[in-house]
Write a structure and sequence with these properties.
A hairpin with a 4-residue loop joins β5 and β6. By secondary structure, the chain is mostly beta strands.
């Protein structure tokens, strides 16, 4: 038995768990936190829940992700928070490109046509 024979010992890996399925959903993310998006319009957004980490009047940089049957898009933008408490967050876009505004309008038209 040599000095380094213990290095030759192999350990069997346990059964591999399948990767969690990617969950479709709409969210607003900032500072590493993500919150479910309840409403998005060409003027702004509202979240369904919130932890109160932003305050009314504050400017923030957020990333919006929409991934559902009515549309799939993502963009980053600056917002002004108009209402924030422990149950919801409402903000308006400071500036979004006409392309993004068009995508949001089309998304809302798709939802309205489906009756949602």
């Amino acid at each position: 038995m040599g000095l380094f024979d213990f290095l030759k010992t192999s350990v069997k890996d346990g059964p591999k768990k399948p990767a969690a399925p990617r969950r479709a959903g709409n969210s607003v993310a900032f500072d590493g936190k993500s919150f479910p998006l309840s409403v998005i319009t060409s003027k702004g957004f509202a979240t369904a829940s919130f932890d109160g980490s932003l305050i009314a009047g504050q400017n923030a940089r957020i990333t919006v992700t929409v991934d559902d049957p009515f549309g799939k898009f993502s963009f980053a933008t600056n917002v002004v928070i108009s209402e924030a408490d422990n149950s919801k967050c409402v903000g308006s876009w400071m500036m979004i490109t006409p392309d993004v505004e068009g995508v949001i309008r089309k998304y809302n038209q798709n939802k309205k046509a489906a009756g949602k």
